[in-house]
Design brief:
Length: 118
């Protein structure tokens, strides 16, 4: 599962987590420098830490959502409701959504759905 999620991680997910980490650490350092020790300082650091964990967690949950949808045979593109299929037009180890034409990595244990042609 972790290898499949690593294949689905985009640069946007990594950048979001890294920016949240650096901004959170910077704000946390500023809070530590400018507020006197006490309850207010601890509360401010907890709020900054919770916000940082929330942003990093949302990026992780986005990757997990894409993994879950792709494992079920659905296209993980948020604007598409198609199903993914193997095709001779894409490389081995890749699947394609015929609706949005986006190519995704094939995951171990994927469940392909039957499509009706009319």
């Amino acid at each position: 599962m972790l290898q499949g999620m690593a294949r689905l991680t985009t640069a946007g997910d990594v950048i979001k987590a890294v920016v949240a980490l650096f901004v959170g650490l910077g704000i946390g350092a500023g809070v530590s420098a400018f507020l006197s020790p006490g309850t207010l300082r601890v509360c401010a650091q907890c709020i900054v830490g919770a916000a940082m964990i929330g942003v990093i967690g949302s990026a992780g949950l986005g990757v997990f959502r894409r993994y879950r949808q792709l494992s079920e045979g659905k296209c993980p593109n948020p604007l598409c409701r198609g199903v993914v299929q193997r095709s001779e037009l894409v490389d081995r180890g890749q699947v394609v959504c015929p609706t949005c034409k986006k190519v995704w990595p094939e995951l171990a244990g994927m469940q392909f759905r039957a499509t009706a042609r009319g």
